[in-house]
């Protein structure tokens, strides 16, 4: 969006990237950031919905600072030591007055001048006191974006439809995949070999599991179908084994850590188990 123009309510705090979407919100100096890739959620629509859900969760659970709290924050360009209190200088640099100023609303800006001439040193004290009175009229939370209040009230602009769970790395189809199914590859040990379809899955609990289906034995289409079915079985077993391992860690008092899934590069045919 052009500078000074807020994003739409649906895209508040969300930035589109070539690979998906990223969410970035700042609360009291703390940045809340997360990425939502299209590949991880099965497409752009689901990635955006997940990003919006997480954005809404942060908005509701971590509200922005109160308006008064933010108004009392010392700015880098403040030269008086008191936020909202400014001095007026004469041409020679002499302080000729003190000003208390507070922004309440677009049509309500409070200000009061206290000239040094006639008030002396009391002018600064009076300006500081007036600033406190002005802040008493400031209520509510800061508004980083017009959509914040609607989100906190549960009036989200995005669809409430079903959400796809995040895919593990094992389930993401890579760019160099030729089968259209992650973990399923066509291999040919040499140019004269008819080849085979290989299903391979890596699990932190069981290590690498693979099974090959010969094109000569089953035909190309059937061998590929068998490899895809085997891959689904491997993923189901991987999930079960990882859950058992995680439960065992909890039972023995160990902290449960996220299971990182990664796919090793498929090896040559000698390392694969052939199905006949």
Could you give a quick summary of the protein structure above?
32% of the residues lie in helices and 24% in strands. It contains eight helices and ten strands.
List the helices and strands and how they pair.
Layout: E1 14-17, E2 20-27, E3 30-37, H1 38-41, H2 44-61, H3 67-71, E4 85-89, E5 95-105, E6 108-115, H4 116-119, H5 122-135, H6 147-152, E7 184-187, E8 196-203, E9 207-214, H7 215-218, H8 220-251, E10 274-275
Parallel strand pairs: 9-10
Antiparallel strand pairs: 1-2, 2-3, 4-5, 5-6, 7-8, 8-9
Walk me through what this model shows.
The chain is an alpha+beta fold and 276 residues long. The chain has three domains: 1-64 and 143-164, no CATH class; 67-135, no CATH class; 169-275, no CATH class. Helix content is 32%, strand content 24%. It contains eight helices and ten strands. The protein has helices spanning 38-41, 44-61, 67-71, 116-119, 122-135, 147-152, 215-218, 220-251, and strands at residues 14-17, 20-27, 30-37, 85-89, 95-105, 108-115, 184-187, 196-203, 207-214, 274-275. It has a four-stranded mixed β-sheet. It has a three-stranded antiparallel β-sheet with strand order 1-2-3. It has a three-stranded antiparallel β-sheet with strand order 4-5-6. The two termini are 59 Å apart. Residues 255-276 have low confidence and may be disordered.
Strand content: 15-25%
Question: Residue ranges: pLDDT <50 for 5 or more in a row?
Answer: 255-276
Element pattern in H and E: EEEHHHEEEHHHEEEHHE
Report the count of strand segments. 10
Share of helical residues: 25-40%
Mean pLDDT equals: 79
Alpha carbon gap, first and last residue: 59 Å
Radius of gyration: 31 Å
Sum up the overall morphology in one term: rod-shaped
The domain tally reads 3
The quaternary state of the protein chains shown equals: single chain
Strand order across the largest sheet: 7-8-9-10
- In DSSP terms (H or I, runs of 4 or more residues), the helix count works out at 8
Which structural class matches the secondary elements? alpha+beta
Biggest beta sheet summary: 4 strands, mixed
């Amino acid at each position: 969006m052009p500078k000074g123009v807020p994003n739409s309510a649906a895209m508040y705090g969300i930035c589109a990237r070539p690979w998906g979407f990223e969410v970035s919100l700042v609360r009291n100096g703390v940045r809340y950031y997360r990425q939502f890739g299209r590949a991880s959620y099965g497409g752009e629509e689901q990635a955006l919905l997940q990003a919006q859900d997480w954005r809404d969760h942060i908005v509701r659970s971590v509200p922005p600072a109160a308006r008064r709290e933010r108004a009392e924050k010392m700015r880098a360009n403040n030269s008086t030591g008191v936020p909202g209190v400014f001095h007026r200088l004469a041409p020679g640099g002499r302080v000729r007055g003190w000003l208390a100023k507070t922004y309440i609303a677009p049509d309500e800006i409070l200000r009061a001048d206290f000239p040094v001439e006639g008030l002396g040193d009391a002018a600064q004290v009076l300006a500081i006191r007036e600033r406190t009175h002005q802040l008493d009229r400031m209520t509510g939370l800061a508004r980083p974006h017009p959509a914040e209040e609607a989100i906190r009230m549960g009036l989200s602009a995005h669809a409430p439809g079903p959400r796809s769970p995040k895919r593990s790395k094992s389930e993401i189809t890579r760019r160099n995949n030729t089968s259209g199914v992650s973990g399923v590859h066509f291999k040919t040990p040499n140019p004269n070999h008819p080849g085979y379809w290989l299903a391979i899955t890596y699990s932190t609990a069981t290590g690498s599991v693979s099974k090959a289906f010969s094109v000569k034995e089953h035909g190309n289409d059937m061998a590929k179908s068998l490899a895809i079915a085997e891959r689904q079985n491997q993923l189901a077993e991987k999930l079960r084994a990882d859950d058992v391992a995680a439960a065992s860690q909890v039972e023995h008092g160990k902290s449960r850590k996220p299971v990182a899934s990664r796919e090793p590069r498929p090896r040559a045919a000698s390392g694969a188990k052939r199905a006949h």
